[in-house]
Every structure is written in C-alpha cells, then in structure tokens.
Amino acid sequence: MDKRVLLIAGSKSDSEFVNRCEEYLDKLGIGYNTEYSSAHRDPERTSQLAREAEKSGYEVIICLAGMSAALPGVVAAHTALPVIGVPLDSSALNGMDALLSVVQMPPGIPVATVAVGKPGAANAAILAARILSIKYDDIRGNLDKYRESIKQK
Amino acid sequence: MDKRVLLIAGSKSDSEFVNRCEEYLDKLGIGYNTEYSSAHRDPERTSQLAREAEKSGYEVIICLAGMSAALPGVVAAHTALPVIGVPLDSSALNGMDALLSVVQMPPGIPVATVAVGKPGAANAAILAARILSIKYDDIRGNLDKYRESIKQK
Amino acid sequence: MDKRVLLIAGSKSDSEFVNRCEEYLDKLGIGYNTEYSSAHRDPERTSQLAREAEKSGYEVIICLAGMSAALPGVVAAHTALPVIGVPLDSSALNGMDALLSVVQMPPGIPVATVAVGKPGAANAAILAARILSIKYDDIRGNLDKYRESIKQK
Amino acid sequence: MDKRVLLIAGSKSDSEFVNRCEEYLDKLGIGYNTEYSSAHRDPERTSQLAREAEKSGYEVIICLAGMSAALPGVVAAHTALPVIGVPLDSSALNGMDALLSVVQMPPGIPVATVAVGKPGAANAAILAARILSIKYDDIRGNLDKYRESIKQK
Amino acid sequence: MDKRVLLIAGSKSDSEFVNRCEEYLDKLGIGYNTEYSSAHRDPERTSQLAREAEKSGYEVIICLAGMSAALPGVVAAHTALPVIGVPLDSSALNGMDALLSVVQMPPGIPVATVAVGKPGAANAAILAARILSIKYDDIRGNLDKYRESIKQK
Amino acid sequence: MDKRVLLIAGSKSDSEFVNRCEEYLDKLGIGYNTEYSSAHRDPERTSQLAREAEKSGYEVIICLAGMSAALPGVVAAHTALPVIGVPLDSSALNGMDALLSVVQMPPGIPVATVAVGKPGAANAAILAARILSIKYDDIRGNLDKYRESIKQK
Amino acid sequence: MDKRVLLIAGSKSDSEFVNRCEEYLDKLGIGYNTEYSSAHRDPERTSQLAREAEKSGYEVIICLAGMSAALPGVVAAHTALPVIGVPLDSSALNGMDALLSVVQMPPGIPVATVAVGKPGAANAAILAARILSIKYDDIRGNLDKYRESIKQK
Amino acid sequence: MDKRVLLIAGSKSDSEFVNRCEEYLDKLGIGYNTEYSSAHRDPERTSQLAREAEKSGYEVIICLAGMSAALPGVVAAHTALPVIGVPLDSSALNGMDALLSVVQMPPGIPVATVAVGKPGAANAAILAARILSIKYDDIRGNLDKYRESIKQK
User: Can you list the alpha helix ranges (DSSP code H) found in chain A?
Assistant: First the structure.
C-alpha cells in the first residue's frame, strides 16, 4: 500500500492520540508512516521531514502537538502539501493553548485544524481521506463505506 | 476555467470576508462560485448545495460563518468533499463562538478550520490550493509562485 | 399519556444526560419519546425528525449535544416548535464549546439554551413544563407542586 | 391586541436592545408591555412585576440584562411562566459575564437563554412567538410568514 | 458571643465550602449563624433573611453560591450591610460562571467578591474580620494574632 | 470632614476611574485622600502608604489597578484594614487579567473585589459606605438616601 | 559551587513544582538556594529576600506562585536582577489566573514568564541557564549538552 | 556601540510595536539590530537569523509576533541565547492567541514571555537590560537610572 500520509507527533508522550489517528487511517485504508519529531527540541529534523515529505511520496501531512503547538505551522512553512493540525489537551489549560496556536496561522501559511484531543485525532484521518478522495477512487470508496457505517450507529 | 471551489457564506453581511477569500482564489488561479445560504435560515437550500456540489464538479468547499457557525459542519455532513471552515468575528464574543463551533466537530465529520476572520478567509483559499495541488499541476504552479512571493515581502 | 416532548441526543454516549432529563420529565408528568440522531453523522434522519415532530403531535423539542453542538440549531431550522438546547460538557473544553455553539444562534432561528451538562438536562425538562403550562393545566399543576417541593428542601 | 409578553430590562441604558426586541414582537404581531426594573437596584418592584405577570395575562416574560445579569433568574424565581433571558454586552467583558449569569441557572429554575446582545434581542421575540404558537394560531401564522421571509433573503 | 455574621449558602451541597468559612470564623472569634436558602428556588425566604439581617443584629453577610450565583447580589439588593460573595466552582465551567456572576454587579449594589472556592471561603471570614475590626477591638486583636501566625508558616 | 478612605491608583493614566470613584465618595459624604503609587514601580512608597494608613486615621482603602493588578493585594498584605480592589480594563485583555489578579488572593489576605472598570469604581465607593455604615450613622444616612434614589430611577 | 539562582515559592504546598525546577537546575549544574516566602502573607520578608538577593551573589531569581501570583512581580519590583516567573495551576481556574497575574506586568518592571505548572518549572531552570550562559562558560557547556540530549529523545 | 540585542518581528505590520521596543532599548543605551522575518512565511531565513545570532555577537534576542506566534519559540529552538517573546494583539482574539502560543513552550525550550502588546514591547527591552546587566556594568547603570526615574513619576 502506498504511504500517502505522513503523521508527525511532537512527543512520545502523545502516543495515545497518535494511536487513535492510526486506527482511523487503517480503517480508511490509507497508508502512512509515523514520526516523532519536536518542532522546538529538534527543529532541523522537523524541517527536514517537512521538506522531504513530498518527494518521499506523501500527499498529506498530519501533525499532532500540545501546549504552544508550533509543529503543524512549522511543517506547513516547509512544504506545499496540505497540513492537518491536531491540537492536544496535554497541559493545564485543557488544550485551549494548543488550539489557538494551531488554528490562528497568519495569512499565507494555513493549517487545516481539527478538534482538540482524541476526537480531533480521529477526524484528522477522516479529513485526510476526504482530501485524498479527490484523487484516489479506492480511498473514496473506503470513505463512503465509513460514512455509511456511522449513520447506522 | 473549471470551477473547483464552492464558496458558501451564511449571510450577505459577511461579504467583506467573502471578498478577501475570492481575492486569494483569483490570485491562485482557482475557479469558484459563491453562494449565500444560511444553515439555520434556509437549511433545505444549504443541504442541497452541499449534496449537489460534487456532481456539479466542485472538489473543495469553503464555508464562512459567524456566531453559532453551523454552516461548515452541516455542509460537511452532506458531502464527502473536503470542507474548509472560516469562523467569523461578527458577534460580541470576537469570534471565539464561531471558532469553537467550527473546529470542535465530533468524530466522523471533520471540518478543516482556519483562523478567525480575514486572515482565515485568505488562508482558506490557500488551503484549497494546497489540497487541489495534489491533483492539478497548474494550481501547484500558482501556489509555488505565491509561496515564493511572500518570502520576498 | 400524550407525548408532547421529543427528546433528541446526538450520541448514545450522552445517555447519562438524557436520563437526567427523562427523570425530570417523568417527575413533571410530561409524556415524551427519546431519539438518538446526530446532526453531523446522520443529517437526513435528524432533519426528518425535526420536520415531522409537529405532525407527530410534539409541542416542544429538547436537544442535547456536546462539542460543536449543531443539533439544537439544526432542529430549530426545520421546525417552528420551541427548541430547548442543552450544551454538554463532553470534550476537553468543559462544555464552553457546546455552550457557545448552542446559544449564539443568528437572528431568525432561536434556541432556548439552558445550563451546561446535568443541571441543564434537568432544567430543560422544567423549561418544557413552563412552556407547556401556558396550554395544559395538568402540567401546570405538576409544575406548581414541583416548584413548591424545591422550596422545602 | 392582547398583551401576551412582558418585556423587562434592567436599565434605561439598555434601550437599544429593548427596541430591537420590540421591533420583532411588532413584526410577529405579538402584544407586549415594556418595563424597566433592576433586580439589584429595585428588587421589590422587580419581584412584584414577576409575581403579578401571570394574573395580568402575560404568558411569556422576556428579560434583558448586562453584567451580573440576575434579572432573568430572579424573575423566573417568582413566576411559573417561561422566562427568556437576553444577556447584554454592556461591560468590559463583552457580554461573557452576562451570558454565564443568565444561562448557568441551577437545577429547578430554568431561563431560556438566547444569544448575547442584539441578535439575542431579536431571537427572544421569535422564541416567544414559537412558545405562544403552541397555543395561538394567529401568532403561528405570523411566525410561519416570518420564517418564510428569511428564506428568501 | 454576639452573632455578627450571617452566613448564607445557596445549597446544602455547598457544605464543604460553608465548613471552611465557619472554621475561619471560629478561629477569628466571630459569632455567626448559617442558613441555607437559594435565591432562585426560595426567593421569598432569601429576601426575608436579607431584609431582617440588620435588625437581627448582623453586621456583615457572607453568601456562597455556584453557577449563576445570584445569591450575593440578591441579598445585597435587600440590605445596606456589607455583603461578601464567594463564587463556588461547582459546575462544569470551573467557577468562572460564578465568579463573573458575583463580581460584575452593576453600579449601585456592590458585592465584596473573594476568590473562587475554598480559598475564597476562608478569605470571606478574614474579610469579615477586617470589616468588623474597624468597630470591635476584640476581633481586631484576633485578626492581628491570625495575621502574625501566617507569617511564621 | 474626617478622611476615612484612602484611595490609591497605580498610575496617573487611571484617573478617569479615580474620578468616578471620587464622585461617588463625594455623593455619599465620605472624606478621602487620593494617592498615585505603583506596587511595581514604587514598591517602598506603596508599602509605606499601606502601613501608615491606619494610624493616619483611614478605615477603608480602595485600590484601582489594571493588568497584573498587584496593588490591592500588596496593600492588603501591609495593613489589617479592609481593602477594596477595582480591576481596570486598561490592557488588550479587557480587564480579565486585572480581575483574576485582584480577586484570586490566596487564603489569608483577602481583597474585596468589585466589577471591572467604571462600574467597579462607583461600587468601590458604595461598598466603602456599606462598611463604614456599621460604625458611622451619618454615612449610613447618606447610604440610605442614595439607595432610595436609585430605586426611583 | 556558587549559588547563582535564588528560587522562591509562595507556599510549601507548591513543593512539587519547586522540586521539578531544582531537578533541572541540578541537571544544568547551576547552584541555587530555595526559600518559601509569600508576597501576601509575609511581604516584609519577601521584599527583603528580593532586595538582598544581588548582594548575596545571586544573578537570577526564579519565583513560583499560583492564584493571584503577585510574587514574581513584587520580587521584580525590589531588584534589578532578571526575574523568571512560573505561574502554577493550583486553583479552580487551572492556572489562567496565575498566568495573567505573572505575565501582564505594567511597563517598567518585566517578569520573564514561562509556561503554567510543571513544564514551566522545568523551563524556568533552563531559561536561567540561557541567561547565565551569556557570562559563564561552564553553564553554557552544560546547557549545550542538555540541548543536544533532548534532540536524541 | 556594540549590538547586543537582535530584534525580530514577524511582519512589517507590527512596526508600531517594534518602535516601542526600540525606543526603550535606546533609552537604556543598548545597541541592537532589527529584522523582519516570519517564522511561517520565510522559515529558512528565520532559522538562519537565529542560528547566526550568537556568532554575530548578539547576546539576547527579542521576538515580537501575533496570532499563532511561533516566531519566539522557533528562534529559541535554533539558539542557546535567551529569547524574549512579545505576544501581539493583532487579531480578533485580542492577543490571547499570541500569549498562549508564546508562553506555553514545552519543557526544554523556554521563551521569556512578557505582556501582550505595547506594554510588553517596552518590557522586553527592560528585561533585556536586566539580563545584560549581569555582565555589563554600563547597561546596569542605565537600568538603575531608568528604574529611579519611574519612581518619581
């Protein structure tokens, strides 16, 4: 399966959110690789991951980060691919810090922001499926099946 | 030029934000149509616009709304296309109401949320360009030129 | 007993809040039916429930929802009945997201919003009783007894 | 025309909001009287207005107040009629103070809260029309006409 | 010992906060009585407590309440005595609702607001001691001893 | 007229709030002196004002401050007199910074906090009148007259 | 080892945050002393600690405090040394109160504010290392080693 | 005069804040250079400025940015120098977005955050003076004179 999504999280301590996202990517039949790289603690590696994502064949990048969640914006600054940001509720401020850091990008460099925490981690995968579906019929097929399944819940 | 983006705003009073978004879509060479349709005041028409968007040839939908900004979520509920939501600061609460309404979508139906107000209206167009660029080389070319131009500012 | 209230919750995971509301409707002698239907995951069924509520004999609709709580507003968009909205604290943001989504309705389509979470679930039932009391003397009698009882607490 | 709605505002300085509400009550063909009475500066008169509202023939009470907006809750405490609360943005905190004061009623005494400020003042009138429509066909007719008119906007 | 402070809480469920306040009143040698009376569920009794407080010999009133905490403001509306308000964190919104409801009193009727929750319950007693100390030397003596004791901590 | 109230503001730029407070102190017949002294820029003078207030004959201290409004708490730390704090909306954050700084005092050193900005400046004077009224009949007389006057508004 | 950092916390109950900071100061090879002194409960001792810090040889002061966290600002008012403030999440308001109290210092007296709670306690030590590194090569060496180590995580 | 401070702002539109900071650096006799470089629109140049700052002789970096203010954190990630961050109120959310983005840095990479907007721009310069004063006596002399001058205001 082609790896179309690059998943980056800022810290190993975010793995429960990463797992939720991976679970939905699997469910939607989307290939992906996961990397842990902090925008603040390892900026060179993070920039490199972002800059090389496209030639590595990725078409969407999902970034998960908490607190002053610079990761999605920094990655978006180094690539032309669509970047989805998941703000995590991993600090005293319940994720409001991460939400505002991820969504309030200045004009020029957008991040496609989804909900705070686990619901957002799931939705990031589904949003990736919606984006990839404009190009790949198989992913669209999986997305349609998923969308049908949640109606019957 | 093919119309790949459907732009929907909840109210004619949001036109200054719509104009900002259109200006960036033009700059990026992306064809679009603009509709005004309220999720709350005219729900049937809004659902219909969402349901017919795909067969009309649109590949991305941008929704702008203020206050209890249900528009992007309602549209996303009726289509499998990627939906970008722009929360508007058109109430006493400075757009915090619209931001939380747009971004906090429940698992299953994501909205790609961008910044509150005019910066978000610009970024919605650029995010649409990033998404369409995974499929259309001409849009990618325009996006690259735009990205280069903001560096020289 | 006539079913005068239609109770709709967005998700089965909201059942503890639904139970609190049902307990108060029972206490006030008000007949009701409960449905689970998500505004985002199953929009057609939700609209249909809203559109048919009146001819099914309901006179008040209570909607409970968390996060980007579009349910009450979407239901209100499809009916002329009074709609009571209960914002739930089921996300990282403690219900502030749901509160602003439910209460900040644009001019034209009001939702009668009550408190966040369980106190609101109880109050939705009591508010339904106040509304129905303008027409039904038996419900008014029950409401008066209830109001007397809480004084003696 | 029967006066079915009692409109109470906490202060003469809130008159621009009162006017907006009256304009919509007129448009919907609902008779009303307006009183200015502060829950804090003139509590006896306020309680009396609330206690006598029902025998004066009113069926819905609308209360507008800013800051620590106790008025709707205090009125609801003294009557069994449905009380609609409009939180006003008349302080440094943009109406967030009034919103939380009006909506966060403890279990037992609900206030039907609408949006902050002018949109809420309009919606209070429309919510009153929805409530009265369960009993009065003429008001329902007016409401239907109004709802149709906003679709064509 | 003369009962100089009247302590009113809105609900029996607030007793842990009441106990904290009583503990500090005891420590400071201030006589008091405690009443439970809700501004919303039993407004007549609450008003009466407030109106009779002064002739009963009380000189300061302390009110504790959560959510839409109208109690301190309603009591202040019915008495000329200084009223101290303690906002309680007893809802989903962490006491921000109670804080804004208690402190944002309109011009004319002030409430002396202290911190949210238990620290505020302690400080309400100490503030009462500061107020009573302008008149009673024995309370001032106790206050001085208390103030000295916390330095040595 | 005896000077019973010491009024301290952190900055000359707060004079419009100081004037509001003075206007109400005049109206209530309470003597006062006004000082400008910053807790942060001139801490020694501020502490000295606080420590000497009591022997100078003051019985209540009113402090007005914006931003990280340490003034009321610092003054309360150096005196046993009741200290009233007025949080000012003089920064980008609309006074929420000052409100939390003033009201959230730790156990041991309370500040009697009133509303943000001009309404609070007025209420600080009235709260001072309520406190002084437990001791001075003439101030109580003035307070009663004032309270009567606002009813007739 | 020279003691270059003075660490002050407002309350013994903050010791878990103090320990985190000390752990990082140890890791970075920075000598320090820790004092507990409340700006509000023991203002004289707090001012004295601040005033004497420089002649005692300290070059950076770290202050940790919760609620209305006046400690860092009060210390900064009494010294010309750089003061780092750590807002603690020790109240109902999740540290938002402490954050705004610490960071929103008026022009003239800055506090170098770091993140709320434990992450901030760690970062205060690292910020002290960055500041001291402009003068001391050994601390710079330790800082470089630490910065390298977090990359390899 | 040696240039010890590097001042970076994210956008030319922030120049009024930059000017305020420069005015205070001048007043304190601190040499500086100012660069405009966006962390999001021109990440390579921003990283390079940060990486080369130290060998260019700078000892403190001041970064000003609004919205999702990644600039200070990104710069801090690429240098071991102390970085001061000024959150700007240049969006609909009054600077709360920038404040949380700047201050809530994850453990490992601190940013010394000052107040939102113009007061923060002034304080950034003064904080730089405090930091440089641990090494340079002439700056300390200027700082002492400045601190004395604000007492006499």
Answer: 15-27, 43-53, 71-77, 96-103, 118-133, 137-151
Confidence of residue C1 (pLDDT cuts 50, 70, 90): confident
Q: In the block, which residue shows the tokens 């008349």?
A: D90
Q: Smallest Cα–Cα separation from B25: which of B12, B52, B50, B7?
A: B7
Alpha-carbon distance of D134 to C129, in angstroms, equals 13
How many Å separate Cα B137 from the centre of its chain?
A: 21
Rounded distance between C-alpha atoms, residue G129 and residue G5, angstroms: 10
Residue E48: helix, strand or coil by DSSP? helix
- pLDDT, one tens digit per residue, over B25-61 is 999 999 999 999 999 999 999 999 999 999 999 999 9
Task: Determine whether the interchain pair F117/D41 forms a contact, defined as Cβ–Cβ distance below 8 Å.
Answer: no
Rounded CA-CA distance H85/H61 in Å is: 9
Instruction: Among C91, C96, C97, C101, pick the best mutation site for testing chain A contact (most A Cβ within 10 A).
Output: C91
Do residues E42 and D78 touch, judged by C-beta distance below 8 A?
Answer: no
Residues near B18 by beta carbon (within 8 Å), at least 6 away in sequence: B7, B9, B34, B64, B121
Helix (H, G, I), strand (E, B) or coil at E140: helix
How many beta carbons lie within 10 A of that of residue B3, not counting itself? 14
Contacts of G39 in chain F (CB under 8 A): 70, 73-74, 77
Q: Which of B146, B87, B139 is CA-nearest to residue B112?
A: B87
* F126: closest CA of chain D, how far (Å): 13
Please provide the distance, in angstroms rounded to a whole number, between the alpha carbons at the two ends of chain E.
29
Question: What is the phi-psi region of residue D32: left when phi exceeds 0, alpha when psi lies from -120 to 50, beta otherwise?
Answer: beta
Taking the C-alpha atoms of residue F53 and residue F62, their distance in angstroms, rounded to an integer, is: 11
Between CA A11 and CA C23 the distance in angstroms is: 45
**Which H or E run includes F120?**
helix F118-133
Q: Taking CB atoms and an 8 Å limit, are D42 and F117 in contact across chains?
A: no
SS (H, E, C) F39-61: CCCCHHHHHHHHHHHCCCCCCEE
CA distance F56 to chain D (A): 34
At H151, the pLDDT band (50, 70, 90 cuts) reads: confident
Chain F nearest-CA distance from H73, in A, is 22
**pLDDT tens for each residue of A26-36:** 999 999 999 99
Do A114 and A120 touch, CB atoms closer than 8 A?
yes
Phi, psi (5° rounding) for residue H50? -70, -45
* Structure confidence at residue D153 (pLDDT): 54
- Determine the residue of chain G that is closest to A93 in CA distance: G94
**Distance of CA B72 to CAs B40, B102, F91, Å?**
12, 7, 34
The predicted pLDDT at position H98 comes to: 98
Q: Residues B40, B77: contact at Cβ < 8 Å?
A: no
Q: Do C119 and E68 touch (CB under 8 A)?
A: no
What is the fold, at CATH topology level, of the domain defined by D3-152? Rossmann fold (3.40.50)
Nearest CB among B96, B150, B153 relative to H93 is that of B96
Diameter over CA atoms, chain F: 46
pLDDT of residue C120 exceeding 70: yes
Q: Token pair 């002739």 is at which residue?
A: E55
- State whether D67 and E104 contact (CB < 8 Å): yes
Q: How far apart are the first and last CA of chain G?
A: 29
pTM above 0.90, yes or no: yes
The predicted pLDDT at position F151 comes to 87
CB half-sphere exposure, B122, CA atoms < 13 A = 10
How many C-E residue pairs are in contact by the CB < 8 A criterion?
Answer: 26
Instruction: Flag if A41 and G89 touch (Cβ within 8 Å).
Output: no
Whether residue F73 and residue G70 make contact (CB cut-off 8 A), yes or no, is yes
Helix (H) or strand (E) holding A36: strand A31-36
Closest CA to B83 of B115, B42, B128, B46: B128
